[in-house]
Amino acid sequence: MRSLLRSAGEAYTAGCELDWRAVNGTGRYVDLPAYPWQRKTFWPTDGNIQTDTVLTWDGSMAASVEETLAGAAEELLASGGYEIRRVRVVRPLPGDASTLAARVTLRATGNGWSFELHGARPSPGSTRRWCVHATGLLARTAARFTPPAEQATQNTRPTPHDVARLLVDNVVTLLELPREEIDLSRRLPALGLDSLLAARLCTELSTELGVSVPVRTVLSGAPLGELAEQLSLLVAGR
Fold this sequence. Notes:
The protein is α+β, with helices and mostly antiparallel strands. It has two domains: 93 residues, Hotdog Thioesterase (Thiol Ester Dehydrase, Chain A); 89 residues, Non-ribosomal Peptide Synthetase Peptidyl Carrier Protein, Chain A (Orthogonal Bundle), CATH 1.10.1200.10. A five-stranded antiparallel sheet has the order 1-3-4-5-2, with helices on one face. Strand 3 and strand 4 form a beta hairpin. Helix 5 packs antiparallel against helix 7 and helix 5 crosses helix 9.
């Protein structure tokens, strides 16, 4: 059995499309945290087991993985609001990628869609040898926030509520957490924010708020509501 599974794994990494359900039986994907410091357990129970939503798109391969995914997402996810993240290139696209047929498979996760991009060369008859080219995640993007520089032209200032919404939107997107798990009493370190992600969060907040947000402010351990108040004071004093 071990030899059989190893051969199946080698065939998959070589680009062959395998029916893993024939090996592992029926099951479902579990939405795991993006990194191990999120203090959250994952244990599916019989009452929570649901059939995952799976979408499939067939078309022509574009010049890049990103262009192909953008075209597929535009057709499958008409509402938009997604960005390509955590792309893992399994097999680089050839120089003549436009001659390939493309197939994108999307599987619903807690904060977006995981994807697999397959490619195949045209062949006589209906038989095609599909190869995996890339995998990754289509993550929901935070709702656009009007920066203070634009609001100034409208003679308005962002309210504390606006700042709190922006903060939560960025935390949900960055940490890939369900929005219903985030409230203003939660603290970022308890949600799994480390120093690297804190720096990324500060960059996003600084860009959208139009002020410099120090990393020490984000890593202070204050509840999100208190952190939003501190950011509001920064914006008010600019």
